[in-house]
Every structure is written in structure tokens, then in C-alpha cells.
Automatic annotation (TrEMBL):
This is Uncharacterized protein. SMART domains: WD40. InterPro entries: Centrosome-WD_assoc, WD40/YVTN_repeat-like_dom_sf, WD40_repeat_dom_sf, WD40_rpt. It holds the Pfam family WD40. It comes from Spirodela intermedia (Intermediate duckweed).
């Protein structure tokens, strides 16, 4: 695993969809670097601190959200002198994103006033009234032809379908939710999944014409859905809940075919492998050294008595059954309890998915959907900050805010130490083609290149330290 040197970064970053460029926010400046060499390709100056960065799908344009201004600035990679500013004035901007055609930008104003579609071609704009104030208010089909917008009027949630060619309203229908929390098209564009706020467990599947295909509620009188994710193949829908369970629906029958529990102790028999992060002391063999009496006394007086205790490396240890997992109980007198499936992601071949139960923040669970079983459990010393699948194969990379990067693959797990002084990995992300891994510290970043093959031989995969 090869690392680059550290570069400055104070804001968000984003790989271009073609994986050739990396956009980095440094205060009010946007730095575009070449992924292969990390040389600066373009440098743009915004009017305020950058809060959000997103590339257009054609990798030609890039937008910067300056939400405190509030304003959106757009830059062209091929025409550096070209620029565009979007200012909503007193209405404010809480969210901005590209449309699939890379020539329109959608912004959401504050206070649920309106969603605006801005054209970069003819400066025209289209307004949609009363959008929901949620993190993902719009979802596009995979072919980029339609957009589903979450709105709320007269105390009722509605879905509006827009054509991405003309931006005309193609249809609208009310949905059976108390307070809609999210929306997502299925990968084959044949269905739309929406889910209610945590106060009510409700998952609804609608057809594009507004027919309710399926309604699911696992239980009542408790906090409900916390995370949802379609499998890339579109056959499965994973639902993570506050009751610390993962449920998987079959797209063909809309039935629950798998339920996975996140238990505080794992007991055999089980095919799962439990990897626990431990510190291994480095034993220094000094028996072959011969020092003079004077030099020996100097060394003993200036060095710690136990040199092995001051030098150690991080490794994974394979645990036996039964194994208890570190967990914590959320306080009953505080809102938004840290429990339930807060992190959920599918592998790109749809065969595996990982989860993190927020009441066990230092534990990552990896499940095999084909065999409906637990494959591996990674037990870290610190809470998991981020975890991502390798786009090129079934491999997970994660970080915990330490100097180490942790990996799991089909042949085992290992840890790698970042060879940069005082570099603590707090976030990470892959380039779309899987050729580059971006690692972020608080005010800097570096990139790493991993071999495309799986982790090394199984006899040393559980104790590697890079």
C-alpha cells in the first residue's frame, strides 16, 4: 500500500466521476488536482468558505455550495474563465445538487419555500413549491429521465415526478406517511421506496404512477427506520432499524427473507471470523550486541527500563467463541439515542453488506446475502468513523480516527499504518474506479494506492500491519 505526502484540506472533497480529478476545498479556494500525480490542475477562488462540493456527471463542471452567503458558484474545468453564480437572496439555500444531464442545478431554499431548477444553457429556472426539509429531497432515475421530489402541503406528504428533459410535472400523488424522511428510486427505475420519520416504523413502495405496491412495518410503539439501502443489482432492499436489527426484502415478492440480529455476544457454532484489534509489543533482541561498560551505563540511564513496552504495533487477533462485544447503553433522558443500524452499505456485487450498530460503535458486521449468514466481525479499539467498499471487489476499508487504516477481504483482515507524522485518519473515500483511496485528517489529506487483488495469503492476513 503506497501513500502520497500530505496536502492541505479544510473543507469537503470530491472525486470526478471519470476518476481523473480530485476537487479539494481549502477555506474559500477550490483546488483541482490530477489524481495520478496530485499536481494542481486548476485553482478557483470563491467569495466565501466552501460548504459543499459536487462534480457534474460529465466531469466538466463543478459546483461549490456557499450556504452561509447563501450562494452557489459553478466552475468549468475546460473553460477556466467561465463562471456562474446562483443567489437565492433572502430565501437562502440549504441544499444544491446537479441534475443527471450536467446542465441543470437544483437548489432547495430554507423554510421549505421552494425547490428551483436552474439552467446553465439558457438561464431559465423552474420552481417547485414546498419541498421537504430533509437531506435527500430529490431522487433521480438511473437513466436520468425523471426526478422524484418530496413535498409537503396542507399537512400531507406528496411525491412530484418531473421530466428531466422539460422539467414539467409528469405526475403527483400523496403518500401514507406522517413525516416523510427519505426517498430512493430502485436501481431498475420501476419502483420508489419512501420511509417515515423515526417516530413511526413505515416503509412504503410506490410505482411511478402512484400505486402503493407494498407497505411494511416491523413493529409499533418504538423508534423505527434508521437507514435504508438498495442493493446495486436492485433485487434486495436492506432496512436498518432502531431495534438493532437488519431486515432484507426481496424485490420480486416484497417479502422479508432475512433478518440479522446484532447481539452483544457471539456464540458458536458459526462460520464467522471475529477479528479484534490488539496492540502487539515489539520484542527487540539485543543479545548479539556487545557494548563497552561506559556506553552500557549511558544506554541504561537514558532509555526506558522496558523498551518493548514503548514500541508496539497494531494487528488483528482472531478470537474464539464465545466472544463478548463492547457495547454501550444510550441515556434514556436524551433525544436521538445512539442505537440501531446507523451505517449500512452493499458491496458492488450485491453479495455482501456491512452494518454498524450505533450502540456498538467500534464493531463492524459483514454479512453474506447469498448464504444468509454472518461472515466476519471487526472489533476495533475506537469507534468507527467511516467504512467504504472497494468499487473493484469485495473489500472493506475503514478508519477510527487513528494513524491506521483497516481492511477486510475474503482472505482475512489487516491494518496498515499511515507513514505520515501525526496524521489521524478521520474519513476516507474511494475514487469511482477504485484506483485511489482518499484519506483525510483534520486539516490535511493524502492518497493511497491499493493492489487490485484481494488481501494476501490467509496465513498472515490477520496480523499484517503494513
Amino acid at each position: 500500500m503506497d501513500f502520497t505526502e500530505a496536502y492541505k484540506q479544510t473543507g469537503p472533497c470530491c472525486f470526478s466521476p471519470n476518476s481523473r480529478f480530485l476537487a479539494i476545498a481549502v477555506d474559500y479556494r477550490l483546488v483541482i488536482r490530477d489524481v495520478a500525480s496530485l499536481k494542481v490542475v486548476q485553482l478557483y477562488s470563491c467569495v466565501d468558505k466552501i460548504n459543499y462540493v459536487e462534480w457534474a456527471l460529465d466531469s466538466e463542471y463543478i459546483l461549490c455550495g456557499l450556504y452561509k452567503r447563501p450562494m452557489v458558484q459553478v466552475w468549468s474545468l475546460t473553460q477556466p474563465e467561465w463562471t456562474c453564480k446562483i443567489d437565492e437572496g433572502p430565501a437562502g439555500i440549504s441544499n444544491a445538487r446537479w441534475s443527471p444531464d450536467s446542465r441543470h442545478i437544483l437548489t432547495t431554499s430554507d423554510f421549505q419555500l421552494r425547490l428551483t431548477v436552474w439552467s446553465l444553457v439558457n438561464t431559465a429556472c423552474v420552481h417547485v413549491q414546498w419541498p421537504k426539509q430533509i437531506s435527500k429531497v430529490v431522487s433521480f432515475t438511473q437513466d436520468g429521465k425523471f426526478a422524484a421530489v418530496c413535498t409537503r402541503r396542507e399537512c400531507k406528504d406528496h411525491i412530484i415526478l418531473l421530466s428531466c428533459q422539460t422539467w414539467e410535472i409528469m405526475g403527483s400523488f400523496a403518500v401514507d406517511t406522517m413525516d416523510l424522511a427519505g426517498i430512493e428510486w430502485s436501481p431498475d427505475d420501476s419502483a420508489i421506496v419512501i420511509w417515515d420519520s423515526p417516530l413511526e416504523y413505515k416503509v412504503l413502495i410506490y410505482s411511478p404512477d402512484g400505486r402503493c405496491l407494498f407497505k411494511y412495518s416491523a413493529y409499533e410503539s418504538g423508534l423505527g427506520v434508521k437507514s435504508i439501502a438498495w442493493s446495486p443489482c436492485g433485487q434486495f432492499l436492506a432496512v436498518g432499524s432502531f431495534d438493532q436489527m437488519l431486515r432484507v426484502l426481496n424485490r420480486l415478492t416484497w417479502k422479508i427473507f432475512a433478518e440479522f440480529m446484532h447481539v452483544p455476544a457471539i456464540r458458536g457454532p458459526s462460520r464467522a471470523v471475529i477479528f479484534k484489534e490488539v496492540d502487539e509489543a515489539l520484542q527487540l533482541d539485543m543479545s548479539g550486541l556487545q557494548l563497552s561498560n561506559e556506553l552500557s551505563n549511558t544506554v541504561q540511564g537514558s532509555c526506558p527500563e522496558n523498551i518493548a513496552e514503548s514500541h508496539s504495533r497494531v494487528k488483528y487477533k482472531v478470537m474464539d467463541f464465545p466472544t463478548s462485544l463492547p457495547s454501550q447503553k444510550p441515556p434514556l433522558d436524551k433525544p436521538n439515542p445512539k442505537q440501531g443500524i446507523g451505517l449500512l452499505s452493499w458491496s458492488h456485487d450485491s453479495q455482501y453488506l456491512f452494518t454498524r450498530n450505533d450502540s456498538m460503535p467500534a464493531v463492524l458486521w459483514i454479512w453474506d446475502i447469498c448464504h444468509l449468514e454472518l461472515v466476519a466481525v471487526l472489533v476495533q479499539k475506537e469507534p468507527i468513523r467511516a467504512a467504504v467498499w472497494d468499487p473493484s471487489g469485495p473489500r472493506v476499508v475503514l478508519c477510527t480516527g487513528t494513524r491506521h487504516v483497516y481492511m477486510w477481504g475474503l482472505r482475512g483482515a489487516c491494518s496498515v499504518t499511515v507513514p505520515l507524522s501525526n496524521f489521524l485518519v478521520s474519513d476516507l473515500r474511494w475514487s469511482p474506479d477504485g484506483s485511489c483511496l482518499h484519506l483525510r485528517d483534520r486539516d490535511s489529506f493524502c492518497c493511497a494506492a491499493l493492489p487490485s487483488m484481494e488481501l494476501g495469503p490467509s496465513d498472515d492476513s490477520s496480523d499484517g500491519d503494513g
